[in-house]
Amino acid sequence: MSEIEERLNELELRFMEQARQIEDLNAVVAEDGRRLARLDRENSRLREVVGRLAPEMIESPDE
């Protein structure tokens, strides 16, 4: 195999590995997005419950 063919082969292997890593990272980002949306909904529900249970409570500084 010539040097150019070897280099091309190496580049193709690197490209395939990077493509796989991008797909893996995309799956992680998508799952994190779903998890974040779920946690946001849960947070909203918990705030509603706390608001109904203790309306006289002073709001925290971060609100």
Structural overview:
The chain is an all-alpha fold and 63 residues long. Helices cover 81% and strands 0% of the residues. It has one helix at residues 3-53. The longest helix is centred in the middle third of the chain and has 51 residues, at 3-53. The protein is rod-shaped, with a radius of gyration of 25 Å. The model has no long low-confidence stretch (mean pLDDT 92).
Compact overview of the structure:
The chain contains 1 helix and no strands.
Helix/strand layout:
Blueprint: H1 3-53
List keywords for this structure.
1 helix, rod-shaped, 81% helix, 63 residues, mainly alpha
Number of strands: 0
Report the structural category: mainly alpha
Distance between the termini: 66 Å
Largest sheet: none
**Strand fraction:** under 5%
Low-confidence stretches at least 5 residues in length (pLDDT < 50)? none
Question: What is the string of helix and strand elements?
Answer: H
C-alpha Rg, in Å? 25 Å
Overall 3D geometry? Answer: rod-shaped
Measured as a percent range, the helix fraction is: over 70%
How many helices? 1
Mean pLDDT: 92
